[in-house]
Amino acid sequence: MSRLLDELASMEGGDPIPRDRVTAPPGSFSPFILKITAPPVPGEVLVRALGDRGVLVSTGSACSSRKRDRNRVLEAMGVDRERAFSSVRISIGCATTDDDIDALLEALHAELPALLRVARS
Fold it and tell me: 59 and 70 in contact (C-beta within 8 Å)?
């Protein structure tokens, strides 16, 4: 997870939520779930782009998949609406390999710059 956080923190648009997670003490956050945001790219667009490359992420937890307002926890954390709307959830489990992390990072590096250019224009 540390390598993933370091890479995301240095990537344009790859902003971990909360931002201080990169420097937070171990045990402050779940080691298995990561939220990143890439405003103004909508989270659903990033989910689709990564899915087209075989990387599966989501915009919310499984228990919120049918709810329209999936950002209430992020808003309670002080995350503004734009960043919450642009967020995606990355889940990492015991079966996640270094190759899986590499595939995620490769897909983000390939897709995110173009998505950011389009969303900002």
Answer: yes
- Give catalytic residues, as residue numbers: 63
Q: Any idea what the CATH number is for the domain that residue 84 is in? A: 3.90.1150.10
Each residue's pLDDT tens digit, 1-48: 667 777 877 787 777 776 665 566 666 777 788 888 899 999 999 999
Q: What is the pTM of this model?
A: 0.81
Distance between CA atoms of residues 26 and 116, nearest Å: 31
Pick from 105, 113, 109, 111: nearest CA to 1: 105
Cα gap 84→81, rounded to integer Å: 5
Number of domains observed in the structure of the chain: 1
